[in-house]
Amino acid sequence: MEGHLNLTLKIWRQKNANTAGKFETYQVSGISTDMSFLEMIDVLNNRLIEEGDDPVAFDHDCREGICGMCSMYINGRPHGPNRGVTTCQLHMRSFQDGETITVEPWRASAFPVIKDLVVNRSSFDRIIAAGGFVSVNTGNAQDANNLPIPKDDADEAFAAAACIGCGACVAACKNASAMLFTSAKISQLALLPQGKAEASKRAQAMVAQMDEEGFGACSNTGACEAECPKGISLENIARMNREYFSATFSSK
Amino acid sequence: MTKIDTKIPDGNLAEKWTKFKSSVSLVNPSNKRSLEIIVVGSGLAGASAAASLAELGYKVKVFCFQDSPRRAHSIAAQGGINAAKNYQNDGDSVYRLFYDTIKGGDYRAREANVHRLAEVSGSIIDQCVAQGVPFAREYGGLLSNRSFGGTQVQRTFYAAGQTGQQLLLGAYSALQRQVGMGNVDMYTRHEMLDIVTIDGKARGIIARDSVTGALERHFGHAVLLCTGGYGNVFYLSTNAMGSNVTAAWKAHKKGAFFANPCYTQIHPTCIPVSGDHQSKLTLMSESLRNDGRIWVPKKQNDTRKANEIPEDERDYYLERRYPAFGNLVPRDIASRAAKERCDAGYGVGTSKMAVYLDYAAAIIRYGKGEANKNNMHHPSDEEIQAMGKAVVKEKYGNLFDMYKQITGEDPYEIPMRIYPAVHYTMGGLWVDYNLMTSVPGLYALGEANFSDHGANRLGASALMQGLADGYFVIPYTIGAYLAAEIRTPSMSTDSEDFVAAEKAVRDRLETLINIKGSKPVDYFHKRLGKIMWDECGMARSEEGLKASIKEIQDLQKEFWSDVKIPGELNNLNPELEKAGRVADFLELGELMCIDALDRNESCGGHFRTEYQTEDGEALRDDEKYAYVAAWEYAGPSKFNLHKEELKYENIKIAQRSYK
């Protein structure tokens, strides 16, 4: 049932990429437990606007857990305390009255801060541009059912393809590694016959881009999998490594 | 007065597109390299168009306001995509998909466009599979299908409840491939704030870099708006927070007609509003109506819990009223039926503005099916429940999880509470057969145009239309225009027209930020949304619409004198972005009411209370209103109506019946 919370918020404020940031403390009261976390921030922001202060900038769009745009690091965890949930789907019933909540942006050198809680994740787009596709122009396709794909393979590819590109895996990793993100796309396409033709080239190109962007090496702690809102499995990293090493060994 | 020229090719309906494709002007590969195309928006329509045009050799620039093209709101489409493949051998065909779409749209869509859509639908599935889109499959390895509303065949392809995500990621990967190859320049965190026209033709855009606040001028031989729908005019909708009408509205003010603005889709199955804090509504996919049963108590104001109400005291009102289609009636009909029950006092939940969507019967049916498959001859009830829930989880797991996260209730155990919410807009920029607006060189694709869904869109047809427009229509139709542009060199953006357009944008932003009033943008947006929902939502009346037009005009004045926008122009400023969008919504809302007032009939999602049959169904007036209302901007609060007459040469126009 609906209740109301009074909370203390410690939020990272940073004017832009060139200025140093710091935590600011805010009080919010009468927060309904039926609100989403972002709606709670909306309440704070509308108050800040009315008081003549600059509202907290944060990324968000679909607010239904699928676009991958929201990206808050809440109480030391990407997307907050619950497993399998993005920040926009996190509801205030997961918090206690009187609690202090700390909110930070994703921390990674490959994700520079733009303002407050907003970071630049275009490095992910460049990793996909390096090879996260099947090279098929529009109009080249054969009839879809000419290519039967075992259901288990299709299901596994789908599970990897469910990645929303939010970057929680990077934020969770002490090395700020993008292995889970990169491996999910490599896996999806390596599992499907359509993707096999360029599987080796893809693995090499995407891994090279990932390194160039400044993401760290795998920490082997599994924090990425634990914090992924879409449950992307660590097995994808193993599969990526297989693809990458077999590509490296067989390369000319 | 401009004459409406649809440019529909002559000939038999089924041959128009084939004939068009083989006779349309072509641009040779070396000329393509010097032709520049601007694509605004990176959803299904924008990403597929940009990738396909770049593959052909055109120089493409893509703009999106999000931080990555992968985040466009197509990503959130859940249930599926239609295609006339007839893989199920259940009688589907191009003609049937065409017919279902025209009928579903309540006979207010253009025959030639819809037939073309049905013709290319199969190729979309082929293309997506080739890209590695992991559609659901059967154990034999072939593609699986399910049903959606308004059809009696299974033609919907899907990827769990995340079909839009998978299709968009497919189109996004094709787009990123072209970005990597240097054929597309991608501009993320950029918002288009005006169209630049030179000598009557669209020649570029003014865009604002959201991070630095800098205004930029970009030239294109053609401009494609793939900027989605305007459902957020209602404040609360299933659209993403950033979804807006600004690009389309700027185009409208530069001469593009806006067609059928009052045709909005209220989706029947959304999670009900929980309080004033609500910032958006969440859809529960129409695919849930494949297996779920919708009901309310037979008794008014019944306060018992759902599971305590015995079977014979439940009213499965859709099955009762529409036995032929049952729970799978089209969206407009299902939404009105839910509203009718709630208004009559049979609603459930604390707000009484909800109905139940119940999976208990489906869980038992699937559980028994699994028992048979596994040769279990005497399964216990618990075993049936467990196996049934596992099947439901596989089909709809992400939706059930989402429901639980939002409401805190477990839909595997108790029925979901749902209520209609704004979801999609059939209206949009008027386009001809080539998808060109009434401004030469300016195109509109996907939800941003008005073309294919008439007065009501069928489920799983939005993804189909977005990808059809981008992958298979625009690559051909744009040749008709660009073939005549090969002698036009790339233009300098220092010309008077570009400079003036940029100045107008800058002046407007400065005006907005200098109002320094007392109310945040959301305050005005919420008030507009309430007017629109109450008077231009599921039921509209002459009296209500007239009053609303006045109210909206007053609200416009209040907005421009009292809005308070913090921050600066030259920095990331989400409130400034929102303010610009809400200012445009305030003008659009007025036009929507004007359009709804003009249309003295009920059709599809447009329901005028004065025009209904005895049993409460929409009552069309084909004599007077079988036209597309294409509105021309003629200054503040002034719009001129142009009518595109709809001719039905292949379908017998009839009272729509799903009984």
Can you describe this structure in just a few lines?
Chain A is an alpha+beta fold and 252 residues long.
General description of the model:
The complex is a heterodimer of chains A (252) and B (659). In chain A, 37% of the residues lie in helices and 14% in strands. Chain A has 252 residues and is α+β, with helices and mostly antiparallel strands. Chain A folds into two domains: 4-115, Ubiquitin-like (UB roll) (Roll), CATH 3.10.20.30; 121-250, Fumarate Reductase Iron-sulfur Protein, Chain B, domain 2, CATH 1.10.1060. In chain A, the strands form two sheets. Chain A has a five-stranded mixed beta sheet with strand order 2-1-5-3-4. A two-stranded antiparallel sheet of chain A has the order 6-7. Chain B has 659 residues and is of the alpha+beta class. Among the domains of chain B are: 269-421, Flavocytochrome C3, Chain A, domain 1, CATH 3.90.700; 495-625, Methane Monooxygenase Hydroxylase, Chain G, domain 1, CATH 1.20.58. Chain B has helices at 13-23, 29-32, 44-56, 94-104, 111-131, 163-180, 246-253, 288-291, 317-321, 331-343, 360-373, 381-407, 462-482, 496-513, 521-536, 542-562, 574-598, 622-625, and strands at 36-40, 59-63, 81-82, 156-157, 184-187, 190-198, 201-209, 215-219, 222-225, 258-259, 264-270, 293-297, 314-315, 355-358, 416-425, 428-429, 442-444, 627-633, 639-645. In chain B, the strands form five sheets. Chain B has a five-stranded parallel beta sheet with strand order 5-2-1-9-17, sandwiched between helices. Chain B has a five-stranded antiparallel beta sheet with strand order 11-15-14-12-13. Chain B has a four-stranded antiparallel beta sheet with strand order 16-10-18-19. In chain B, helix 3 (44-56) packs parallel to helix 6 (163-180), helix 11 packs across helix 12 and helix 16 runs antiparallel to helix 17. The mean pLDDT of chain B is 96.
